[in-house]
Amino acid sequence: MNTNLDGHRVLVTAGASGIGLATARAFTAEGARVLVCDVDEGALDALRTTDPTIAAVAADVAEPSDVARLFGEVRSRLSGLDTLVNNAGIAGPTAACEDVDPADWRRTLDVNLTGMFLCSRLAIPLLKAGRNASIANLSSAAGRFGFAMRTPYAASKWGVIGFTKSLSIELGAFGIRVNAICPGAVAGPRIERVFAAKAAARGIAPEVVRDEVLSKTSLKRFVTAEDIANAIVFLASPLGANISGHALPVDADVQALA
Fold first, then answer.
1. What are the C-alpha distances in Å from 168 to residues 3, 83, 165, 178, 183?
2. What domains appear along the chain, each with residue ranges and CATH number?
3. Residue 145 and residue 43 in contact, taking contact as beta carbons nearer than 8 Å
4. Most buried of 52, 89, 208, 250 (most Cβ within 10 A)?
C-alpha cells in the first residue's frame, strides 16, 4: 500500500520517545521529512544519534515563547508544514479530586490542551499553504470514558475531542483534515508508572490494576506505540483524504476504564 508521503513535511510534538518517536519513525519510513520537539534533552540527544535524519529541537509546548521559536524552526528546516501531530501530553496526578493540587491541575491542562492550541494556531497558516494537510491530536480512552482518580488527565483529553471536532469544522473549507486518536493502555514504562501510582492510591498491587485494565478490553491486550503511529500515518496520507472530525479509538476495544 503506497501512502504517497514522500517529501511530506511533519511536525511531531513530544517526539523523542514513546508514541511520538514511533510516529516520527513511521513517517520517516514513508519518505516524509520530520521535525520533532521535546522537553527531554537526554531523549533528544539520543534521537540525534539513533535517527539523524529526524530534526530535533527542545521546546515546551505549554510555553508560548517556546512554541513561537519551534515554528521558526519548522519554517527554516521544513520550509512549510503538511501535517501537525499534537502528541505532547503528561499523565498528571493520580489522586481523589479533593486531593489534587491546583498547580498540578493547571500544568496538566497547560500541556495536554493549551499546548495543542498554541501549536495549532501557528501551524494553521502553514497548513493552509501545505499539501494534503492534516492535524492529528492525541486524546485517549480517557477522552471517551470517566476515569476516577485521574480527573485532570481525563478533563484534558475530553477537551481534546471538543477542540478536534470544532477545528475540523473550521478548517474543512481549506481542505485540512483534523482527527483525534484515542489510545488505550499503550505498553511501555509510562503506563507501568500509571498503574503503580493508581495502585498506591488504592492500596493494592500494580498487577491488580493491570489485570483490571486488560479485563475492560475485548481483545485482552495492550496496544503499542507503533499501532498508534500506523493510524496517524494512514490518516495523514491520501488514503485518509475523506476522514475528518473523528475521535478514532486504537485501544483493543476498551469498554470502560478501571
1. 22, 14, 5, 5, 20
2. 9-185+224-250 (3.40.50.720)
3. no
4. 89
Q: How many angstroms separate the CA atoms of 143 and 164, rounded?
A: 12
Distance separating the N- and C-terminal Cα atoms of the chain? 37
Indicate the pTM of the whole model: 0.95
CA 250 vs. chain centroid, Å, equals 12
Catalytic residue numbers, as ranges: 153
